[in-house]
Specification:
The protein is an alpha/beta fold. The chain has 8 helices and 15 strands. The structure holds adenosine-5'-triphosphate and magnesium ion.
Length: 392
């Protein structure tokens, strides 16, 4: 799919903007702080209902205004729809398809994008929670019913944690009467999550390997593997850096997973009662990223970490593209080229060549390979000042 036209009203530093977009690569250039990221953030929001850099929708409403509107015409081979969201400072956000109201949460069904931004470096360097979020967001995009399973698991986890906390507070006299019931629900929902993530890792791993090699060259091997807290010994404090955790484990069946989960809960019971939190389950799992046989976290260089994060995003785009009936997701690359060396820039340009539409931002146009600069747009102070072609 592709976006043919974007309109913004009171979004971030844009009072009002209208922009036609071309198929293939589109380049947004401009000095720092002019509105390049804001533009692509608006499109990212339409496909995920979230910003990649803030958890507050209000930050996206232009200062001093009550609401912001993002409207995009999205086309694929079969149809063209007008997708619109209004962010409100007071009251709920509103969404429309072809000018008719729909439930806001239905919006992502009409537009798919995969956005890579500097914040994604945390996928490689940051805490496990960021990697779990990456997996779960992709799970929901592929299988929307996983949203309910993940939400139910969170709810059961919170209930179970508060039971553990009150048992701890009550000391030896504490009652654990209903813990068994919560354990069974935790195992049931947790097993579904562990299995779905394992399926996803199976699909993503070869794509990550391909994407990394496409950016960095064939001599580099990037791999990923799930790390399950229910299999770690001890109190479930999976230590991502210990080498024995990097050994590939055979894939467990659903029954084996549930069995291992129950066994882990027995193993950690005492520590859980001491600490008042649940110590085993998918909420403590991780995704182990390995580059040329070394863990990426703590070992990879800046450029390598950057390339790995990018490979994860390109791989998720490849997985979505394979399964989508409405064409490729729109690929959004915010500020990626400045961090890569010349040869990686060229390779990346080649790797994104086949995508229906790619949106690229850069503070310095010269950082972007010329083959991606055909349709370039100059952004200055929240305005589209120049739309140029070929001679960019
Ligand atoms: N809600 C808002 N209202 C008004 N202005 C805003 C709002 N949110 C952000 N801005 C302004 O938008 C500008 C940042 O825009 P953006 O992040 O798109 O810059 P950029 O062109 O991507 O720059 P860089 O090259 O540094 O990444 C900042 O000047 C910021 O103050
Ligand atoms: Mg930016």
């Amino acid at each position: 799919m592709r976006v043919t036209h974007l309109s913004l009203t009171d979004f971030r530093n844009y009072e009002s903007a209208e922009l036609d977009l071309a198929p293939g690569p589109n380049l947004f250039v401009g000095s720092n702080g002019q509105g390049k990221t804001n533009l692509v953030e608006a499109l990212g929001y339409l496909s995920t209902l979230a910003s990649h850099r803030t958890s507050s929708d209000h930050a996206m409403i232009r200062a001093g205004c009550d609401s912001a509107i993002v409207r995009a015409r999205v086309s694929n081979d079969e149809q063209s729809v007008l997708v619109e969201v209004q962010l409100n400072r007071v009251g709920a956000n509103r969404a429309q398809i072809n000018r008719s109201a729909i439930k806001t949460r239905e919006l992502p069904r009409y537009f798919a994008s995969v956005l890579f931004a500097p914040e994604d470096l945390a996928l490689v360097r940051g805490e496990p929670s960021g990697r779990r979020r990456f997996m779960d967001e992709l799970l929901i995009l592929r299988t929307p019913r996983m949203a309910a399973v993940l939400a139910d698991y969170d709810r059961v986890l919170r209930q179970r944690n508060s039971l553990l906390k009150s048992a701890r507070a009550a000391g030896a006299r504490g009652s654990l009467g209903t813990l068994d019931i919560w354990d069974e629900r935790l195992v049931e929902l947790g097993t579904a999550i562990i299995e779905a993530r394992a399926d996803l890792v199976d699909e993503l791993a070869p794509e990550v390997e391909l994407a990394y090699a496409a950016i960095a060259g064939k001599e580099h091997a990037a791999s990923l593997a799930g790390q399950l807290s229910i299999l770690s010994s001890g109190a479930g404090d999976g230590d991502a850096d210990s080498p024995q955790e990097l050994v590939d484990r055979d894939r467990l069946s659903g029954e084996q997973t549930a069995h291992a989960f129950r066994a882990a809960l027995v193993r950690v019971r005492r520590a859980e009662l001491e600490r008042g939190i649940t110590l085993a389950g998918p909420h403590r799992d991780d995704l182990i990223l390995t580059l040329n046989d070394l863990p990426a976290r703590g070992y990879a260089s800046h450029g390598e970490s950057w390339s790995f994060a990018l490979a994860l995003k390109l791989a998720s785009a490849a997985v979505l593209r394979r399964e989508s009936s409405s064409g490729d997701p729109v690929l959004i690359l915010d500020d990626v080229f400045a961090e890569l060396d010349e040869s990686r820039r060229d390779r990346l340009a080649g790797a994104v060549d086949g995508f229906e539409q790619v949106l690229i931002t850069a503070a310095v146009g010269g950082d972007v390979p010329i083959r991606l600069a055909g349709n370039s747009v100059l952004i200055r102070a929240g305005a589209i000042v120049l739309v140029g072609d070929d001679d960019a």
